[in-house]
Specification:
Helix content: 25-40%
Bound molecules: D-xylitol-5-phosphate, zinc ion
Structural class: alpha/beta
Low-confidence stretches: none
Shape: globular
Number of strands: 8
CATH superfamily: Aldolase class I
Mean pLDDT: 96
Strand content: 15-25%
Radius of gyration: 16 Å
Oligomer: single chain
Number of domains: 1
C-alpha cells in the first residue's frame, strides 16, 4: 500500500523545517489538496506559497476540490503531478475533465465524497487511472474517518470483473487505529496523523508496519 502525505493541516505554517520533514518522511507521494473556496468553502493558499514543493523528490498526487478543473490543471502543470484528481460532484463535463488531465500527461483520478453513490462514477471507470474514495467530506483536514470500506470492495470487484486498471485511493481521517480496515486499497492519504507529530518519518513507518 502506498502512503500519500497531505500537507493540508500545516498549510498555513509551511516552512523549511516542514518541507524537510516531508522530504524525509519516506511517504510515497505528496498529496496536494487544492481548494478554490467555491467547490468547498475553504481556499488553500495560492500557488506561490507551494513553490517549495516543486523540486521535492516526491511524486505529486494533486487533489482538486475546485469548480474550474481545466484552470487548475494548467496552473499546476509546473509540479508535473503523477496524478490529478477531480470530484464527480457538481461536475458538468466529466469527459472534458478526463481529457484535459490526460492531455496534460498526468494520470487521471476521479473522486467522490463519502455519501456520493458509486453509480455516479461507474460510466467513467474504464477511462480513469485512480478512484479517490473520500472517507471525510472534502474540505478540511483533521476530521473523523467515515467507514467507506463497502465502496472499496465494490470498486475492487468491478475492476476485476471488467479488467479495469484504476488504483483505489482513500482520503480522510486515516490513522494507525483504522488503516488496517483499508488493506484492500492501493493508496491512502494521511494528513494530520502524520503532520501533528514531531517526526513525520516515524508516523509513516508506524503506518507501513501495520499495512506492510
Ligand atoms: C480533505 C483533504 C484530505 C485531508 C486529509 O478535504 O482532501 O486530503 O487533508 O487529512 P487528514 O488525514 O487529517 O484527514
Ligand atoms: Zn485530499
Amino acid at each position: 500500500m502506498k502512503i500519500a502525505l497531505s500537507y493540508l493541516s500545516v498549510i498555513h505554517s509551511l516552512d523549511e523545517k516542514t518541507v524537510e520533514n516531508i522530504k524525509n518522511s519516506s511517504a510515497d507521494y505528496l498529496h496536494m489538496d487544492i481548494m478554490d473556496g467555491e467547490f468547498v468553502p475553504n481556499k488553500t493558499v495560492d500557488i506561490s506559497s507551494l513553490e517549495m514543493f516543486k523540486d521535492l523528490p516526491l511524486r505529486k498526487d494533486i487533489h482538486l476540490m475546485v469548480e474550474d478543473v481545466s484552470f487548475y490543471v494548467s496552473l499546476y502543470q509546473r509540479f508535473s503531478p503523477t496524478y490529478i484528481t477531480f470530484h464527480i460532484e457538481g461536475c458538468l463535463d466529466v469527459k472534458k475533465n478526463i481529457e484535459t488531465i490526460r492531455s496534460s500527461s498526468s494520470k487521471v483520478g476521479i473522486a467522490l465524497n463519502p455519501f456520493t453513490d458509486l453509480e455516479t462514477i461507474k460510466p467513467y471507470l474504464p477511462f480513469v487511472d485512480l478512484v479517490l474514495v473520500m472517507s471525510v467530506e472534502a474540505g478540511e483536514g483533521g476530521k473523523s474517518f467515515i467507514d467507506i470500506t463497502d465502496k472499496i470492495q465494490t470498486l475492487k470487484k468491478i475492476r476485476e470483473e471488467n479488467n479495469f486498471s484504476y488504483i483505489i485511493e482513500v482520503d480522510g481521517g486515516i490513522k494507525d487505529t483504522n488503516i488496517a480496515l483499508l488493506k484492500d486499497a492501493d493508496m491512502v492519504v494521511v494528513g494530520s496523523f502524520i503532520t501533528n507529530a514531531l517526526s513525520y518519518k516515524e508516523q509513516v513507518e508506524k503506518l507501513k508496519k501495520i499495512v506492510g
